[in-house]
Sequence to fold (168 residues):
Amino acid sequence: MADIQLAERYLYPGERWFGRGNLQVRTLLGSCVAITLWHPGLKSGGMCHYLLPEDPTRSRARAPDPRYADEAMGLFLRDIKRMRTCASDYRAGLFGGGNMFTALERAWTVDIGRRNSEMGRSLLRRYGFTLVYEDVGGKLHRQVILDITDGKIFLRRGQGNTVILAVN
Fold:
């Protein structure tokens, strides 16, 4: 049996991807948070990498911006509707939200990693997603890879070993 060639899509801060295919979506997180979604029946899903819980200017006279958790979620909900599925069909993961700043920097960031994690958890709960993996907080960066073909998540904390999280 021939090996399936997987394409890779790297998400930079403020980006998102949703769809199907032989693809791995990956990102690197500090205080930012990634939400992963995967539909086991359709073998589809996505990932977002958001920087802030919401737009501090509250400017709604523009297209939705995935740099903000609430707007990235709105885009995911639009994608899910287009697929004729519902949120509860998806297995979700929540990653990142590390405390990456010094004590002086934390004074003006108001623990953005914690706020990002809380917002992600709240949005997933509000819209009825099934949260199967959560790895947030701490002081290490994380690399997260979502394999769209089988829903596996590869997680590396700091310079540690990669852990494979299988979605059943």
Summary: The CA atoms of residues 32 and 127 lie 21 Å apart. The first strand starts at residue 7 and ends at 10. The radius of gyration is 16 Å.
